[in-house]
Structures are given as structure tokens and as C-alpha cells.
Amino acid sequence: MNELLGFITRPTGQTDETHEDSNRPAREETVTEKVTCDLCGNEIKKERGDAEEVQVSHRTGSAFPDGGMGEEVSVDLCGECFDTKLIPWLQEQGAVPATREWDY
């Protein structure tokens, strides 16, 4: 999935600045030039002021107050595919999606 979307990986540092004697490896950061929907292939654009965001992921691993590690599997979906493909499929499987209003 990620290989097809133009991801760039680059090192962002050699050590943890607060623990210079740390043996941590360099941290890598993924810079995304554009995001496309994994179902329809359309570009997912974020316009200033628009609030439309789809997050579908599964994280596994270990988490502790001082850090953790693990793996995350995710898909990128546009709002239309979420509403017209994923939600109906989930409902066919017996899921009942919850709708909540939000405000901040």
C-alpha cells in the first residue's frame, strides 16, 4: 500500500536529545506528498476549514508510560468510500455503526 502512494522515508535524528548516551537507533519519519483512497484511487484532499477525516487502523504491541512499540495496519479511505462501501459492508456483517456529534 505505502509503496504506491509516494512515501519518502528519511532519518530525523541519531540519538534521543534528553539521553545522549542512549542506544536508540535513528528515528525515521514518513513524509506524505499526497494520499489516495485505497479503494477508488482518488486523491484525498484536505481543504482549509473542511472537517472530513477517515481513520481505519489496527494497532498491536506494547505500551508503557515511558514508551512502547508495535505495529499498525491502516488503510486510507475517502469519505465517499467509507459511507458507500465500508459502512454498508460492516452492516452486512452485523455491525451497528454509532453516529455522534462532535464540537470543540
**Terminal Cα span:** 33 Å
The tally of strands reads 4
Share of helix among residues? 10-25%
**Beta-strand percent range:** 25-35%
The helix-and-strand class reads: alpha+beta
Which regions are unreliable across 5 or more consecutive residues at pLDDT < 50?
1-12
Average pLDDT across residues?
A: 80
Largest sheet: 2 strands, antiparallel
Number of helices: 1
Shape: extended
Q: What does the radius of gyration come to?
A: 18 Å
- Main-sheet strand order equals 1-2
Q: What string gives the helices and strands in order?
A: EEEEH
Total tally of structural domains: 2
Verbal overview:
It is a single chain. By secondary structure, this protein is an alpha+beta fold. It has one helix at 79-92, and strands at residues 7-11, 28-32, 56-64, 67-75. The strands form 2 sheets. A two-stranded antiparallel ribbon has the order 1-2. Strands 3-4 form a two-stranded antiparallel ribbon.
Essential attributes:
1 helix; alpha+beta; extended; 2 domains; two-stranded antiparallel sheet; 104 residues; disordered N terminus; 13% helix; 27% strand; two-stranded antiparallel ribbon
